[in-house]
Design a protein that fits this description.
The protein is α/β, with parallel strands linked by helices. It is about 55% helix and about 15% strand. It folds into three domains: about 180 residues, no CATH class; about 40 residues, no CATH class; about 120 residues, Glutaredoxin, CATH 3.40.30. It contains 13 helices and eight strands. Helix 9 links the parallel strand 4 and strand 5.
């Protein structure tokens, strides 16, 4: 009977260890994947961290850290799911969590950034939610490390090295591709097909921000706080000192809180862009002093194409006038310039510069500067959208291709491993 109890206990431990393995692996794979889809966005978040910790001199390394950190996280997740290097994977994952858990506790306590960026723009968690998630993961990792020998293995030890190398290199390549183009999946409110005015709207019945006024009075050298319900309005023994307003509960926020674009005379022209019945080309460069002129001929040709057909074409930037003039001198740009906050522009498109086609507030097309088409092709794109053809599933199609390019090699490795090592070992055991 004692033996049966021991076997039942072992089975329970194994089941818990496997559940923890699946939880950790799934979270790490998802987290690494969404960061690899948008390496520029994750680099921006890393830059925010560096500034907060007084390490702004290291900001030029943010993109390199972004690509490699997402690849490391993704690789650890895959290794955890497949049971590859179970002990080493558990140790490295534990070290990762021992760094991230105190960091997220600091973020929760002092709130230097509102979102840690652990799931990119796919899932936004508050800092306290992120810390709670990390506490759960840390506990699961400790349990997995203690019982790592009980975890299921998909492969034999002989192919471990190849799996780790393949997964890491593949994720780095995937992330670098997204950097050189645009994210295959766009989780931001400015994705293709989104209507900006609709993203800015809040339903009439949505909860609003609730604030409370705090009044500070003093009596006999003692200060005390009161609310609007109990402050001593008719008690002259109290002396008013100060007042402040506190947020009691936060209401629903729109996906896009502000969208302000100005002309050279500082007139707000946002409505002109958002409610135009005709398509508008927007060349967006959050910083012209850092923008690439690699495809400037294609940009200028596209402007000529728009000019000939009476289509509006603007460049929106967050740069000062001297940088605009420098850009004009270098590129021969003749299009008009508008101005907006550079954070807004980086959110709209992860390219400097990047091309956006908008019509009546709806984003019809977004292109990295490396993918700006020749004017003949853009004519076809315009015709497609004006005829209301559905062409917005390109990102999902490419995701399927990339996932196939990842899973098929792993499947082939498993077949090779089974035929050459696992089956041979099973035959020898018999």
């Amino acid at each position: 009977m004692a033996k049966n109890k021991q076997m039942t206990k072992e089975r329970i431990i194994k089941v818990i260890a496997e559940i923890c393995r699946l939880l950790i692996g799934s979270v790490f794979v998802f987290s690494g994947f969404v960061k690899a889809i948008d390496p520029v966005g994750f680099a921006i978040k890393i830059g925010d961290y560096l500034v907060d910790f007084g390490l702004q001199n290291f900001k030029p390394l943010a993109l390199l850290v972004s690509i490699n950190l997402s690849a490391v996280e993704f690789t650890l997740g895959v290794c955890m799911l497949l049971g590859v290097y179970r002990r080493y994977t558990s140790i490295l994952t534990l070290l990762f969590m021992l760094v991230m858990t105190p960091l997220t506790l600091y973020l929760a306590l002092f709130n230097p950034v509102s979102d840690c960026g652990c799931f990119g723009d796919a899932i936004i968690l508050s800092n306290w939610e992120t810390f709670s998630k990390n506490v759960v993961l840390l506990s699961a990792v400790i349990f997995v490390l203690i019982h790592h020998q009980k975890l299921f293995q998909c492969f034999t030890f002989r192919v471990y090295w190849f799996i780790v190398l393949f997964v890491y290199v593949y994720c780095v390549g995937f992330s670098y591709w997204n950097y050189n183009h645009l994210p295959l999946l766009d989780f931001r409110p400015y994705k293709i097909g989104a209507n900006i005015p609709e993203q800015m709207a809040i339903p009439d019945d949505a909860p609003q921000d609730v604030y409370e006024s705090i009044f500070i009075y003093e009596k006999d050298g003692v200060k005390k706080e009161f609310t609007l319900d109990n402050y001593p309005a008719n008690d002259s023994t109290w002396t008013f000192v100060d007042t402040r307003t506190e947020l009691v509960s936060e209401g629903v926020k729109p996906a896009i809180e502000t969208f302000n674009v100005y002309d050279k005379d500082y007139n707000d022209v946002s409505d002109i862009l958002l409610y135009s019945e005709e398509p508008i080309f927007l060349l967006i460069a959050h910083k012209l002093e850092e923008a690439s002129d690699e495809r400037i001929d294609a940009i200028n040709n596209l402007y000529d194409y728009a000019l000939e057909r009476g289509i509006s074409f603007y460049c929106i930037t967050g740069s000062a006038q001297k940088y605009i003039q420098a850009w004009i001198d270098i590129t021969g740009a003749e299009y008009p310039f508008l101005f907006a906050d550079d954070v807004l522009l980086k959110t709209i498109i992860r390219s400097n510069p990047g091309l956006v086609l908008i019509n009546n507030g709806t984003i019809l097309e977004k292109r990295h500067y490396k993918d700006i088409p020749e004017e003949e092709y853009m004519a076809e794109v315009l015709n497609d959208y004006l005829e209301e053809k559905q062409t917005n599933n390109k990102g999902y199609r490419w995701i399927y291709i990339y996932l196939s390019g990842f899973t098929v090699p792993l499947l082939l490795i498993w077949v090779y491993d089974y035929l050459h090592f696992r089956r041979r070992k099973e035959s020898e055991d018999e």
